[in-house]
Amino acid sequence: MDKTLKMDQYEMDALTEVGNVGVGNATTALSKLLDKRVAINIPETKFVAVERFADELGGAEQTVVTVYLQVTGDLNGEVIFIFPRKGAMELVDLIMNKSPGTTKLMEAMEESAFKEMANIFTSSYLNALAKMFDMKIIHSVPHLAIDMAQAIIDFVLIKLSQTADNLLCVKTNISIEKHNIDGTFMILFDKESLSRIINLLKSQYKI
Amino acid sequence: MADEIIVDMGKYEVATNPTVLVCMSLGSCVGVALYDSEKKIGGFAHVMLPKSDQYSVSGRSLNLNKFANIALPGMIDKMKQEGSKLENITAKIAGGAHMFPGVECDMMDIGKKNLDAVREELRKQGIRIIASDVGGNVGRTVRFDISEWKLTIKTKNEVKEI
User: Fold this and answer.
1) Phi, psi values for residue A135, rounded to 5°
2) Which of A77, B43, B62, B114 has its CB 3.0 to 4.6 Å from that of B30, i.e. a possible disulfide?
């Protein structure tokens, strides 16, 4: 199996740690937005075969609400938020300060609220990385789609699979206390960006 | 019930009747179904990318069947090995959507590029496309029933047959 990037366990752990820093910051921001405790688990860093990627999203055909943002600047990558439809609507209730179960349809206003959540989360995540590495990192506006999971994100897999059959993803589950909200935040850096991160970590932290 | 075989992203399968070949959840990917109605032999490719020669693939152990220009000739050869004659083979295609309508970037156009590459390759091979359900901004799961040369396409809105 080609991994294109040869990474050892230290490097994978280092990437997880980078993910942790980002997610820590992002979680604080999301907690503030919702005025709720947001639980996240430690990010997982792993190589996933392109054709098995949908399994990471809870199945290829599951209908999900997805937000996609493109990362550019000193690091290039893709950010994906994936939430099962029901959880996404409950999250919208929280953001819009409605009682759980109020939102039954994702319309323009609801989509906008969901996108804003993703925007704030991603900005905080990337800000933490930008500070850590003294980098300039920009992200696009959020784009939202509701459809089958694999169909929505296959262009991301296509983009990254031009040169590799296995993709490295840093994946975190986001869940909100006392609510039935359980989603996934995922960031996939391109190969050059991964090498840059690893090299910076090596020089800064002597890993 | 005929066996269902899932055709993974970037792969193709060739099977004989009775079998149902399935491409799950196609977005920008294109499902290319080929059928020999004489021998009832079917092939289904889950194409991800247009052409291998645009990218530097030399020296890497990359799965090349994700590219239209590699997967389709490979699949046709396999069907010939099973006894198909080229003149009996026709094609139906589905997929090639653009899932985020508002987004403009190179990669977002990949669905269209995939469709163009698939059509070009089939033309080159001399295979006629007799039905298609492509483009738009909707995901499609496609089931290819080899017993009756029929694609059943499921989207979040509807189920249709071509």
Assistant:
1) -125, 165
2) B114
